């Protein structure tokens, strides 16, 4: 059962990330900021949703979302959403890797947006 859940989660994660990045890149190269913003909103909303879902599953002592998956989504554009999920739901706040990498990803992504905005 767990193997099927992990496979389903990975497929869904990859689909959401692919859709979000298609929107981000499509909007960037076609100079449509609203399309880019929609992609960024999708990936950040998904990162927040994963944090919320994993916290809920932890309370139930159920199957959990792999930590590598949470960090991957944060790295691939969901830094602010993952950070919001961490802080709002008090989830993964005792894990050194999350306390270091998620704010780092968030700052790097904000810096990237500012740098691109100045171009």
Task: Quickly list its features.
single chain; 119 residues; mainly alpha; 4 helices
Sheet bearing the most strands, described? none
For the secondary structure, the number of strands is 0
The coarse overall form would be globular
Beta fraction = under 5%
User: What is the straight-line distance between the termini?
Assistant: 49 Å
Provide the succession of SSEs: HHHH
User: Mean of residue pLDDT?
Assistant: 93
Q: Helix tally?
A: 4
Low-confidence stretches: none
Based on secondary structure, the structural category is mainly alpha
Helix amount: over 70%
Tell me the radius of gyration.
15 Å
Descriptive report:
The chain is mainly α and 119 residues long. Helix content is 85%, strand content 0%. It contains four helices and no strands. Helix 1 runs antiparallel to helix 2 and helix 2 packs across helix 3. 29% of the residues are buried. The model has no long low-confidence stretch (mean pLDDT 93).
Question: What's the structural blueprint in terms of helices and strands?
Answer:
Layout: H1 2-29, H2 33-60, H3 67-89, H4 96-117
In short:
The chain has helices at residues 2-29, 33-60, 67-89, 96-117. With 119 residues, the protein is an all-alpha fold. The radius of gyration is 15 Å and the shape is globular.
């Amino acid at each position: 059962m767990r193997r099927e859940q992990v496979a389903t989660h990975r497929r869904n994660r990859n689909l959401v990330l692919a859709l979000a990045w298609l929107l981000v890149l499509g909007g960037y190269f076609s100079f449509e900021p609203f399309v880019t913003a929609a992609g960024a909103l999708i990936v950040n909303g998904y990162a927040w949703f994963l944090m919320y879902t994993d916290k809920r599953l932890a309370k139930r002592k159920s199957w959990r979302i792999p930590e590598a998956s949470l960090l991957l989504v944060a790295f691939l554009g969901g830094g602010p959403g993952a950070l919001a999920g961490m802080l709002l739901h008090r989830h993964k706040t005792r894990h050194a890797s999350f306390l270091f990498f998620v704010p780092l990803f968030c700052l790097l992504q904000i810096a990237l947006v500012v740098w691109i905005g100045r171009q």
